[in-house]
Design brief:
Blueprint: H1 59-62, H2 69-77, H3 90-114, H4 123-137, H5 141-146, H6 149-168, H7 241-246, H8 263-266
Helix pairs in contact: 2-3, 3-4, 3-6, 4-6
Length: about 270
Amino acid sequence: MPETLRGDCANCFGLCCVALPFAKSADFAVNKASGEPCRNLREDFRCGIHTELRPSGFSGCTVYDCFGAGQKVSQVTFGGVSWREAPESSRQMYEVFPVMRQLHELLRYLTEALSLPAARPLHGELRRSLARVEGLTEGTAEELEKLDVSAVRGEVNPLLLKTSALVRATAGGKTKSRRGADLIGARLRGAKLRGADLRGSLLIAADLTGADLSLADLIGADLRDADLSGADLTGALFLTQPQLNAARGDASTRLPNGFERPAHWAAR
């Protein structure tokens, strides 16, 4: 995955630490309103407790990724001028950031789709869609603020669905569809889910120990606290690092190429 689609905190104005709100919970130690800088944000826009986020009660921060939207808004949309330097632009910057984040997430999915040999018949359409979304990310702050991101998602989603169908068909046999299913806490130990459609499924705290999730479509699946110990995720479609970071796993969990094994997995 291109580095432009990964968060680069060194070139961002700490936007996720300012623009986004969070509530005191198991994921965050305190309440924070949108537009309020996190108490742990330093003057250089870096996190003061980055290496101690989980033990400090900020595990929610460890499962977030802007997909490169932070540095794009900071360095391109606002030309390297921070909300501290130009407080009059802060409100607009905070409004644009989540829009850019959604666009970059779409770029991440389209880029992955273009890397899949099984989706070759769609590569022309995928390239055109990628170029269109990239063009939108280059818009002015005013254009981005007014952009209907839901409509853009509506344009891209059919292509991603077609991509998913082509890739999952290579799994062989009849594949399962649990799209959008409520599988919270489900006992799926050793489940045969190769090539399954799990788009948008709720797998919170599900037991997926030893499950076969190879070639499964996991776009938008909620894997918070799901146990992926010993599970096979090779070739899983549209999986993101934040999804893995939110789950549990171990050294025997098989990951797709390009993913990092979350540090907290090794501590189990």
